[in-house]
Amino acid sequence: MLNNKSILITGGTGSFGRHCCAEILSRYKPKRVIVYSRDELKQSEMAADPRFMNKAMRFFLGDVRDKERLIRAMSDVDYVIHSAALKQVPAAEYNPHEFIKTNINGATNIVDAALTAGVTKVIALSTDKAVNPINLYGATKLCSDKIFVAGNSYSGKCATRFSIVRYGNVLGSRGSVVPHFLKLKKTGLITVTDPEMTRFYLSLNEAVDFVLKCLKDMHGGELFVPKMESCKVKELVKAIAPECRQKVVGIRAGEKKHETLIPSDEAHRTYEFPRHFIIQPVLPYWQDSTKSLGGKPCREGFTYTSATNPERFSVVKLRGICQMIADDSGMDIKLLPNGISKNGVNGNGLNVNRNGNGASNGNGVRLNGTLRKLKREIAAI
User: Fold this and answer.
1) What domains appear along the chain, each with residue ranges and CATH number?
2) Catalytic one among 129, 141, 227, 232?
3) 141-154, pLDDT tens digit by residue?
4) Annotation says 129 is catalytic
5) Is the full-model pTM beyond 0.85?
């Protein structure tokens, strides 16, 4: 799909952007992979990484707030993956104007620039916090989602199409709770907001796989939601630091105890597939496209929430994933119990093997047993 194509990734120096670039370069032979971001230091560091020393790589300094710069960057671009955003919930409450400029005005600029440049497909990353938002970050992402869906109405005779991927928290990404808990493990005290709080989680591998799959399949206007596993905060703490004391500090401003990916209000427009959902847009022309997608309509009143999600992480699986995150971060932390090692398999089928062969992430981490099964399930979407 991406062979001899030009792909621009906004926020390309972030956790998702870097991993997405690495996967595109390893799977395809693109004409250009353009990293569009505003941090020159991160671009410099990324360009020095052996994984990105490829003749297809381009580094374009710019801000999504700058429409003219976006138009120039999108010249002769086939696909755009929009991952740039301001994301910290507490920061949004204190700096609302800045979040509006980046997440809402930036989305408008992406749509306008893509239409002007004649981009074929644009897929934007969203969040569970955009569903019935109670914080400003979620509200800006809800507005962003609406802008991208509406972009299909403005394309007219232009071939440009816009779709959205909405998912939960990415394990190990910058700002994820996992690296934070790993650091606190060394102190002997873990601070948690609410032990019973639940969240959807997926890995960077799964996020990138799903976005690339949706980019291939999209018609324009859909909102894709992957089926994910959930867990309670206390289960994540048990996987990382069962020996540590816990201090409950209370839910922060703007946080929910449980997250929702599909609210009941959208159930009548939602189709279920084996490993994902598609929420139809409220666009009359789009309805004919559902016939080619398959899937079954969700029942009236259906919701997809982290609290009631039947797919749950086991502590063993969480511990294996967190061990890989610790290793990739250079942390000298051992999470795997006796009988499980990076090169051995125990009765739970968990094997974390670090070499260059087999199914791996961008850092050479091989996934076997339970983790490989998880990757196969996502890849089968």
Assistant:
1) 6-168+204-228+261-305 (3.40.50.720)
2) 129
3) 999 999 999 999 88
4) yes
5) yes
